[in-house]
Amino acid sequence: MIKPAAQADLWRPPALDDAVVTAYLDRLGLDSAAERADPPSVAQLHRLHAAHVERVPYETVWIALGETRGMDPVEAAGYLVAGRGGYCYQLNGAFSALLSTLGYRVSWHRAGVQGQADDPAGDNGNHLALTTVVDGRAWWLDTGLGDGPLDPVPLVAGAFGPDDRFRLRPSDAVPNGWRFDHEPGGAFVGMDFPTTATGPAALVEKNIEISTSPTSGMVRVVTVQHRTPAGVRIIRGRMLTERPVAGSATVQELSGYAHWRDVLREVFRLPLDDVPDGRLRAVWQRIEADHAAWQRNDAS
User: I need a labelling partner for 146 at 20 to 30 A (CA). Which of 50, 52, 239, 298 fits?
Assistant: First the structure.
């Protein structure tokens, strides 16, 4: 069995202020007083993780709005408390700070998501993965994959999840590391991460690259996604895809700006009430233009 990182002297996520923790747990739909009174446990870890994946969406609307975000997990928690989402660095960063505040010892890992089968695998830093140890057992945590696992995963090789559609195994690309093989039809092929822990400094350059480069998928396509116990929902551009745990996927085209806003608010819990309407309409106009260009290219 591959062991988790053991460097006790490395960087650790900071604690959050009391008011932020209360608001954060409220966002997750959990009882703040009860969660803060409970000591770290496997049951609580599952509760927090599943609520986070379901209720705080993976989203790149903030990139389309021209916003910039760094690697500070306290700052990331502020976005989430304000009703926003984010991508892996914010979602896992904030979650690591919440767990740290609740008494968990959490490690960051420089990871790499393999988008397509012909992309190289490895820990290139385009993803942040987390691990922790509870009651002597190591766990992989990941609230930042969009359509990744709903629950934390024991660091033991094997199949898991609904119908054993996910797999965790030793990595072929990262020595002494781990490989997550996604389910068929998932948004990416897999993800690799090392057992060695790291801190924000190792991911800063990649965060800037994938949130600003014109060739980045995060920049090119406005995406919102989350997993629930019932399955996965993903908006890419103006297309909404729903992949239930059982049954076939469905795809529908969002009819317009009002429909998009309603789905963001009601389905993904992303109200964006702090953003001026004109700025959001400009994002939708870009989505419509990109969709029209895609249709022309597809027809040619």
Answer: 298
Helix-then-strand count for the chain, H and E: 10, 13
Report the DSSP beta bridge partners of residue 252: 240
Please check the confidence at residue 2 and state whether its pLDDT lies above 80. no
- Whether pTM > 0.90 for this model: the answer is yes
Give residue-wise pLDDT tens across range 128-174: 999 999 999 999 999 999 999 999 999 999 999 989 999 999 999 99
Position 189 confidence tier, pLDDT thresholds 50, 70, 90:
very high
Q: Which of 165, 158, 159, 168 has the alpha carbon at shortest distance from 195?
A: 168
By CB neighbour count within 10 A (0-12 exposed, 13-18 middle, 19+ buried), where does 15 fall? middle
Mean pLDDT along residues 190-218: 97
- Burial string for 243-269 (b: 16+ CB within 10 Å, else e) reads beeeeeeeeeebeebeebbebbeebbb
C-alpha closest to that of 72 among 92, 49, 52: 92
Domains within the chain, CATH numbers bracketed: 18-206 (3.30.2140.20), 217-299 (3.30.2140.10)
